[in-house]
UniProtKB/TrEMBL annotation:
Cofactor detail note: Binds 2 magnesium ions per subunit.
Family the entry assigns: Belongs to the UPP synthase family. Z-FPP synthase subfamily.
Keywords for the protein's UniProt record, in alphabetical order: Magnesium, Metal-binding, Transferase
Purpose: Catalyzes the condensation of isopentenyl diphosphate (IPP) with allylic pyrophosphates generating different type of terpenoids.
GO biological process entries: polyprenol biosynthetic process
Lineage: Bacteria, Bacillati, Actinomycetota, Actinomycetes, Kitasatosporales
Coiled-coil portions: none
Native source organism of the sequence: Actinacidiphila rubida
Superkingdom of origin organism: Bacteria
Protein's recorded name: Isoprenyl transferase
């Protein structure tokens, strides 16, 4: 361990020691951004950047376990990403499939897909369904893998599901309009039954949500980190939790 690493290790321990995990978030959403830029900065290929980002996931989930987090939502692939050229999309999907399989094989976490399954290739769908089935009984951290996910698409799917449900009951559009409220839509989101994210972390310095959990993040706190995702360290994670704990949540006020 060189001097720089030693200093970061000591600083990380100091931040962790002073952190009150009882005041920490229970659900964290993470926008894993910066894989390609990390690769470019280090002279690596885009594929190597995505693999390095995938390798970081299990490490970060371990930090979440240590600090009392109960749900983590990882944005791995947006609906917009599905329009990428095949020579980039196909390797990326393979890396995501390997990452999801690795999470399931670890036997520590319950894997749950959020996104539009029908937009994904059949093999990717199979991998996601297998991971869900294999970890269904796990009592560990709930890990939502957002693959083929878009916030607007989620809301549109929720409304569509709601309309189908009430059409099956014989409810008219007029009657539905009279009773419709936000809870009706929330019950049809990909994350139905789960708490909304308390904290949303985005790496790479970008300060926008890009459509991530548009409905669920209405009252979330945001933390934007300059570091690229593959270089995200425990001290960066702890800083995000420290920043969250220091805020006074107003829930829309």
């Amino acid at each position: 361990m060189n001097l720089r690493e030693l200093v970061y290790e000591l600083y990380s321990r100091r931040v962790e020691h002073r952190l009150d995990v009882s005041q920490g978030p229970k659900h964290i959403g993470v926008i894993l951004d910066g894989n390609r830029r990390w690769a470019k900065a280090g002279g690596a290929t885009t594929v190597q950047g995505h693999r390095a980002g995938a390798d970081k996931i299990a490490e970060m989930l371990g930090w979440c376990e240590e600090t009392g987090v109960e749900v983590v939502t990882l944005w791995l692939l947006s609906t917009d990403n599905l329009d990428r050229p095949a020579d980039e999309l196909v390797p990326l999907l393979g890396i995501i499939e390997d990452a999801v399989t690795g999470l399931a094989d670890a036997g520590r976490w319950r894997v749950n897909h959020v996104g539009t399954m029908d937009l994904l290739p059949s093999h990717t769908q199979h991998v996601l369904k297998e991971a869900e089935q294999a970890t269904h009984a796990s009592t560990g951290l709930l890990v939502n893998v957002a693959v083929g996910y878009g916030g607007r698409q989620e809301i549109a799917d929720a409304v569509r599901s709601l309309l189908h449900e009430h059409a099956g009951r014989g409810t008219s559009i007029e009657d539905l309009a009279e009773i419709l409220d936000v809870e009706h839509i929330a019950e049809h989101l990909y994350t139905r039954g789960q708490p909304d994210p308390d904290l949303v972390i985005r790496t790479s310095g970008e300060q926008r949500l890009s459509g991530f959990m548009l409905w669920q993040s209405a009252h979330s706190e945001y933390y934007f980190c300059e570091v690229f995702w593959p270089a995200f360290r425990k001290v960066d994670f702890l800083r995000a939790l420290r920043d969250y704990a220091a805020r006074h949540r107003r829930y829309g006020a």
